[in-house]
Each structure stands twice: as C-alpha cells, then as structure tokens.
Amino acid sequence: MQALSFGVKGKVWFELGVYGDSDINCVRSLFTTWVKPRSIKAQAAEEEFEDAAPTKLHGKSSGSVLPYVGIACFGAILFGYHLGVVNGALEYLSKDLKIAENDVLQGWVVSTLLAGATVGSFTGRALADKFGRTKTFQLDAIPLAVGAFLCATAQSVQTMIIGRLLAGIGIGISYIIVPLYISEISPSKMHGTLGSINQLFICVGILAALVAGVPLASNPLWWRTMFGIAAIPSALLAVGMAISPESPRWLYQQGKISEAEVAVERLFGKERVTEVMNDLDAYSQDSTKPEAGWSNLFSSRYWKVVNIGAALFLFKQLAGINAVVYYSTSVFCSAGKVSDVAASPLVEISHVFGTTVASSPMDKQGRKGLLVISFAGMVASVLLLSISFSWNLLAPYSGTLAVVGTILYVLSFSLGAGPVPALILPEIFASRIRAKAVALSLGMHWVSNFVIGLYFLSVVNKFGISKVYLGFASVCVRCLAYSLVML
C-alpha cells in the first residue's frame, strides 16, 4: 500500500459534485431550526428572502411537476457523466492519443472540463434570464453534444481538449439552470427534497460513466464510445425541454401573464392558478430594489452571509472529496476485494445511496445538523484512510481499512457537504446581492476544483498519499468548526 504510485489505473477526476439578510441570526435560524425558507422570509427585517419556489400549495393538485423535473435532470446526469467519464477512459485515450507519458497533458485533458465549467457557470444565469429556462436548456444541449462528439472522434490531444472545453461550458450552464428551473417549478414544501434530486442525478451520471467503462478491459477503443454516449441524453434534454413548460416566474417577469397562467395550470392544476399568480405578483412587488454592486458584497451588512456561501463551496474542494475518489480504484484493488472495473462504481454507489438518504431529512431538519454530521464523518473516515496507508502495525488490514474509509468518506460527504451548499444559496442571499454572491461562491468552487485537478498529482508525488490525506483531515476539522461556529 505504501508503494502506491501516482500513475495508477482508473484515476477519477471529477467534482462531487442557487440568496441574505443584514442580520446573521436569520441565517443561523435557517441552519439550526426546522423552518422552511418562506418562514425565513418572514423573519427578515430589512431584506426580503426569496423562496426559490413562491408557491405554497395545499391539498391535492391536478398538475404535476415531476415529469418536468425528470427532464431537467438530464442536465444533472450529463454534468455527472462528463465529470466521471474520464476516470476509466484516461489511461486508454492517453495511449491512443500518444500522451501516456505526459502527466501534464493528461492533467489538461481532465482540467479543461473544469475551466469550461467555470465559464459556463458564470454565463448560465444571464442566458436563462434573457432567453428563458427551457430555451437555455436547449441551447446548452449544443456544446454538450458537440463536445461529446469531438471527444469521441478526437485524433489529437488538441481536439480532445477542445471537446472537453465545450462539454465543460455545457455542464457549467447545467450546474446553474438545473437547480434554478427545478426550484422555480416546485412547491415550497418540496424545495429541499427536489433540490437534492439534482445532486442525486449528478451522482447517477457519474455512476453511469463508471459503469460505461466496464468494457474497456476487453476493448481498449471503447473509450470513444464512452464519450459518444453523452450525446444521447443531450438530445433527450433538448427534445424534452421543447415540450416542457417555461418557468412561471420568468414568464411573469417578462410580462407574459397569460403564458404564465398556462404554465401554472400545467404544473399545479387549474385550481391553483389564482393562488400561484397571487404569489408571483407579491414576489414581483418585493423584488423592485436595485441590485447591489460588487463592493456591497464585502460590506458589514452582507459579508457574513457572503462568507458562508463562498466558504462552504471552497470547503467542498479542500476537504478532499476529489482526491479521495482519485485513489478509489487503486485502494480497492490493493485490498484484493474487487476488480479494477468494479472498484470505482462501488464507491459511487455509496455516494448515490448517501445522497438518497440525505434527501429525506432535508426538509425536516436544519442544514447545519446535516453539515455537522457530514464533516464529522469525513474527519473520522479520512483519518482512517491516512492510517491505512502509513501504520505498519495495521499492514495486514490496510486494504480493508482503506476500503471502509473510502466508503465512509463518500457516504459522509453525500449526507451534507455535497448537497447542502448549493441548496442553501437561494435561502441565505437577499435578492439585491444574489447574482453577484452566487457568482462569487461558484467562482470559488470551480477555481479551486480546477487547481486541485491540475496539481493534485504533483502534491501526492512530493508528500505521499498518507500525508495528503492527513492534510485533508485537518481541513475537515476546520470545516466542522466553521459549521458549528458560523452557522
């Protein structure tokens, strides 16, 4: 186990992976009580809180949002698939494109996707506001499909990088508009549950990518098919959004009142049209304040909530989720428990399971409790991982301990640190600062993700995997302390 080298087979390169009040106590209540976002809105003294779904529906409804949530989740699946597809394919595409001995170019093949995602995440909201949610989904399908095609047919590393860049732009846009659309068509009482569905389907997409790599052992050229497969859900997303209702909120904001009523009827039923339209009207009257400038984010009035949003996204990366999963295949194979192709899917199955479990209490208990449980579990499991690589006394059990540590780490992450940060952004940022505060939070997320993806190999080669995991443990301790003190 200690002789584990960096150039392992089956490395995983992905992120596991949308506003405040001037009084931080309102945010503290959000995390520590069983209050719904609309209740938080009532607590704000000077700034309005915008519930991501302004519909408070009671009783039965003849409409249904679930089919359209399902269509939107093709974007989440594609997000996960493009992140995870390079895991099994990297070794084989590197040989095919003659970069097997060049770790730098391999790093760029991986990280270019994240660079594109950074661009997409900063432009997604603007596109959605200009063209509407459903049309933005259809536009987003273009770089997703073209990127998949270029990667599948690439005869040079340059073409592969361009394809990954386009796919990255696509998943960056998806990262914004999938939760945005779902939140705007979902009843408020289901906001947390349906919001976590986005994270769940990201996990499903990653798992699908890992399972898609199973034939690689017998067919080295299968990596091209793996990339090409991503064009199918891209097409399904575009077609599905052509028949999906537009966000009633966006239509109302554009002055398309009659179209908004039609969309509300499709989503919630004819009997709810008046109720939802009244909510939209109330929200519109509350959203007339001018947008704050960038300097306002750092004022005493907003800094605490902005700090929380940015810090939680940064913690997701620095706590080591990517790095732990990078070594899942090697760890499992060293344990002699499973084959190469089954190792990483097993880890991702635990991620899917944890995300599914987390969706149930999301609307019943505060976000803070989930984060504390999540970071505490990550501390214990990453310490176990570090020990499994370094303690000679435990050498006979090192493989088993490493397997257990990896599974527990991913499970712990998926319970809180994974889904909660994206879910709480619509709940803690006031509308005046929302767009810029979200951009700052996502910027922290993608930039740190890109840097880790690009330099992680060099850090492990220099310091060793055990010390790196110990460093992640110290970060997780800080994340736990931050959650206890700041939230």
TrEMBL record:
Main location: membrane
Membrane-spanning segments: 65-84, 104-124, 161-182, 194-215, 221-243, 369-389, 401-425, 437-456
Family annotation (InterPro entries): MFS_dom (IPR020846), MFS_sugar_transport-like (IPR005828), MFS_Sugar_Transporters (IPR050360), MFS_trans_sf (IPR036259), Sugar/inositol_transpt (IPR003663)
Keywords carried by this UniProt record: Membrane, Sugar transport, Transmembrane, Transmembrane helix, Transport
Pfam families documented for this protein: Sugar_tr
Keyword ATP-binding: no
Gene3D superfamilies, A to Z: MFS general substrate transporter like domains
Any one GO molecular function term: carbohydrate:proton symporter activity
Family annotation (CDD domains): MFS_GLUT_like (cd17315)
Domain called Major facilitator superfamily (MFS) profile: residue spans: 68-487
Family statement drawn from the similarity comment of this UniProt entry: Belongs to the major facilitator superfamily. Sugar transporter (TC 2.A.1.1) family. Belongs to the major facilitator superfamily. Phosphate:H(+) symporter (TC 2.A.1.9) family.
The protein's name in its UniProt record: Plastidic glucose transporter 4
Species this protein is from: Heracleum sosnowskyi
